[in-house]
From TrEMBL:
<protein>
    <submittedName>
        <fullName>Acetyl-CoA carboxylase biotin carboxylase subunit</fullName>
        <ecNumber>6.3.4.14</ecNumber>
    </submittedName>
</protein>
<feature type="domain" description="Biotin carboxylation">
    <location>
        <begin position="1"/>
        <end position="445"/>
    </location>
</feature>
<keyword id="KW-0460">Magnesium</keyword>
<dbReference type="InterPro" id="IPR011764">
    <property type="entry name" value="Biotin_carboxylation_dom"/>
</dbReference>
<dbReference type="GO" id="GO:0004075">
    <property type="term" value="F:biotin carboxylase activity"/>
</dbReference>
<dbReference type="InterPro" id="IPR011761">
    <property type="entry name" value="ATP-grasp"/>
</dbReference>
<dbReference type="InterPro" id="IPR016185">
    <property type="entry name" value="PreATP-grasp_dom_sf"/>
</dbReference>
<dbReference type="InterPro" id="IPR004549">
    <property type="entry name" value="Acetyl_CoA_COase_biotin_COase"/>
</dbReference>
<dbReference type="InterPro" id="IPR011054">
    <property type="entry name" value="Rudment_hybrid_motif"/>
</dbReference>
<dbReference type="InterPro" id="IPR005481">
    <property type="entry name" value="BC-like_N"/>
</dbReference>
<keyword id="KW-0092">Biotin</keyword>
<dbReference type="Pfam" id="PF02786">
    <property type="entry name" value="CPSase_L_D2"/>
</dbReference>
<keyword id="KW-0067">ATP-binding</keyword>
<dbReference type="InterPro" id="IPR050856">
    <property type="entry name" value="Biotin_carboxylase_complex"/>
</dbReference>
<dbReference type="Pfam" id="PF02785">
    <property type="entry name" value="Biotin_carb_C"/>
</dbReference>
<dbReference type="Pfam" id="PF00289">
    <property type="entry name" value="Biotin_carb_N"/>
</dbReference>
<dbReference type="InterPro" id="IPR005479">
    <property type="entry name" value="CPAse_ATP-bd"/>
</dbReference>
Length: 494
């Protein structure tokens, strides 16, 4: 494999190219008209424009990407995440064109692309799953009987759904029919497939996923877990590895289950098996993602492996160079997704120009990004501008380093989720490790970011009062507090 095409943009395109370069493989970028000056275009050895800015006219058009391979002589395609990365029809077209897709087979993608067929495949092994229906619901009355058996609250899920889309919680049996009808029509319009099923609703889960790697020789290993419970409306914000709640025993059990799930579809490449973990630390398989995930760097940091290099070696037909027992966890890694969104304005995308853009540096800090100072964030794509990753000898050090790195990160011109990340890192529930998927909705409101400043102002005011008292100044304490906090409020930047 001498040349690969990266069918993606932004930070992940660059991240993939860096590994290819280290392996002596030439890279081809594809870009839309909005990305003509993007870093991934400049970094690549060659670049091909594949159309106008909207992704359905560029990054999502499989035929243009295959044509770009033919034009440049690229032998393989790395799809990154999003876009065409989990599209079985594209995977098949790539194969039919005599090219290599750096990823799993179209068959594995197809099965895992549907939650019901994924669960059916996993059923071949003894994988714990949330009680519910094993097939798409055809008869509402039968489903209602099953729902009562399973016990309320229950969750209706769309088989074709992903990332929490098309999910509905039903609290009591009287609401069942109505919610079912709504779920079916929602699923039909969103995915063109109205298949839904039910599961018992696990009320306070943690979201834990296991990274797996499979080669073309039948070897499959897991690379431990990532904790992804800190999310907002199904958008992950903070991820870490390892999870602070898993015991070595549960980790081993989950890891074995993840390998079995992968084995159930003869998985080849890098994949992620998603579980939820309840308060009793019982875990249940939910689904499998057949791509390299956004949060893969935390796994790289604790295992010392380069997942993109492993993907490329697997695609070249090489056998994994290590066994499960060779792998171990070293230290702790945190990742914060830096979005161009305003936490003080309901996380609305905040597009514009990066007037200042200075990344944090130093020991244990990694920034995977795709922009530089002066660039404009295009409105057409995902608003994630960077991933800030820190590594430490333990969780405490990774958190402390993350706070330091957030403070060093200097971005002006757009609002970002950096200060929100700092709120998470300093929150007692996060620090103690006792949190679930409701962390953000439970603890965060816009006041949390403001109150940090007010608290600082109060402390500053009290310190000033004490200082003045010491100096025996004759000023009323209340005046000082009012003045001090006003001063701090006036210089606030948001
Ligand atoms: C669940 C659940 C509780 N009980 N299934 C959301 C995304 C999709 N991958 C699965 N999801 C969930 N499935 C049962 N039976 C709670 C969630 C869930 C969730 C899962 C992972 C990460 C964040 C989440 C946020 C809300 C709900």
């Amino acid at each position: 494999m001498n040349k690969i095409l990266i069918a993606n943009r932004g930070e992940i395109a660059l991240r993939i190219m860096r590994s290819a370069k280290e392996m002596g493989i030439k890279t081809v970028a594809v870009f839309s008209e909005a990305d003509r000056n993007a870093l991934h275009v400049r970094y690549a050895d060659e670049a091909v424009c594949i159309g106008p800015a909207p992704s359905n006219q560029s990054y999502l058009v499989g035929s243009k990407i295959i044509d770009a391979c033919k034009l440049t002589g690229a032998e393989a395609i790395h799809p990154g995440y999003g876009f065409l990365s989990e599209n079985p029809a594209f995977a098949q077209e790539v194969k039919d064109a005599g090219l290599i897709l750096i990823g799993p087979t179209p068959e594995a993608m197809e099965i895992m692309g549907n939650k019901l067929s994924a669960k059916a495949a996993a059923l071949k092994y003894n994988i714990p799953m949330v009680p519910g229906t094993e097939e798409a619901i055809k008869n509402v009355d039968e489903a209602k009987v099953r729902a009562v058996e399973v016990g309320f609250p229950i969750l209706i899920k769309a088989a074709a759904g992903g990332g929490g889309k098309g999910m509905r919680i039903v609290e009591k049996v009287e609401d069942f029919e109505e919610q079912m009808q709504l779920a079916v029509s929602e699923a039909t319009s969103a995915f063109g497939d109205g298949s839904v099923f039910i599961e018992r609703y696990v009320t306070s889960p943690r979201h834990i996923e296991i990274q797996v790697l499979g080669d073309t020789h039948g070897n499959i290993v897991h690379l431990f877990e990532r904790e992804c419970s800190v999310q907002r409306r199904h958008q992950k914000v903070v991820e870490e590895a390892p999870s602070s709640v898993l015991t070595p025993e549960i980790r081993e059990k989950m890891g074995k289950c993840a390998v079995d799930v992968a084995r159930s579809v003869s998985y080849v490449g890098a994949g992620t098996v998603e579980f939820i973990l309840d308060e009793n630390l019982d875990f249940f398989f939910l689904e499998m993602n057949t791509r390299l995930q956004v949060e893969h760097p935390v796994t790289e940091m604790i295992t010392g492996l380069d997942l993109v290099k492993e993907q490329i070696k697997i695609a070249r037909g090489e056998a994994l160079s290590f066994k499960q027992e060779d792998l171990k966890i070293s230290g702790h890694a945190m990742e914060l997704r830096v979005y161009a969104e305003d936490p003080l304005n309901n996380f609305l995308p905040d597009i514009g120009t990066l007037q200042t853009y200075q990344t944090p540096k130093g020991y244990g800090v990694r920034v995977d990004d795709g922009f530089e100072q002066g660039m404009e964030i295009p409105i057409y794509y995902d608003p994630m501008i960077a991933k800030l990753i820190t590594y430490g000898k333990n969780r405490t050090e990774a958190i402390e380093r993350m706070i330091r790195a957030i403070e060093e990160y200097d971005i002006t011109g757009i609002q970002t989720t950096l200060n929100f990340g700092k709120f998470v890192m300093q929150h007692p529930a996060f620090v103690s490790g006792k949190f679930d998927t409701h962390f953000v909705s439970k603890y965060f409101n816009q006041e949390s970011l403001k109150s940090e400043d007010v608290q600082e102002a109060m402390i500053a005011a009290i310190a000033a009062v004490l200082l003045l008292k010491e100096q025996k100044a004759t000023i009323q304490a209340t005046d000082v507090i009012a003045k001090k906090s006003n001063w701090v409020q006036n210089r606030r930047e948001y």
